[in-house]
Amino acid sequence: MTRTGDAEDGRTGTAASARGAAPDAAATGPREPGGSREPKGPREPAGPHEPAGLREPEGLREYRMEELAAAAGITVRTLRFYRERGLIPPPRREGRIAWYDEQHLARLRTIAALLERGHTLNGIADLTTAFESGRNVREVLALGTPSEEEPVRLTPEELADHFAGEVTPENLAAALDLGYLVTDGEEIIHISRRLLDVSAALVREGVPLAEVLKAGSRVREHAEALAELFTDLLRTHAAEDDLRRLRPLAKSVVEAELSMALDRRLGPGAARDTP
CA 253 from chain center: how many Å? Predict the structure, then answer.
């Protein structure tokens, strides 16, 4: 068997790279590796007659370059191109041999799915940069889990499906800045199912996601001000131990006032504001 360790890693500036498009991009659909083995715990070092191939140190599945490409349904040339573009993380090196793992395979399948949904490689590279620069789930958990909102775990492909054609690097960065999205390994977590569903519904109705996020930022400012108002009010007139019990009262006041304000603006005979 030909050695597939990255002795070829030094080859950069391929023809495909010069064109700025992935070679055989149409062949990037994922497929499962044939005959791969599940990890079965610690394994003895390979003997002199043991074939090179799938490696499982400490129970973790690892692949050489050719094996990873086969598992992802792409060519070695395409895999090398993705690595040169920074679309996948660097492999773990052992001498001249490069070892890839399940995180690399998951990323390659994500790239394939996003390509199928019409994203360009440049767009995917930008999304990857924005995604990896976002806050991770540990940071959010350190801030305290929302008491009423249900977080939603999403793959990048599922997020793209919720907002077809609207998951741009700019929108992703804005959602990360707002704290709507956080990262957890290869997954994305939206902090509120209600906000996710409402945002997706508005986009389906024709409201651009960028405008939804801008509105969300303004709502956040007003919501913080209202929360501060009621927190000060309750702390002035109620014991600290009663604050959480009285919390629904403040929420009800805000909901009622918002409902009446919408009636005044959207009800029959309401004047439409003009610029």
Answer: 35
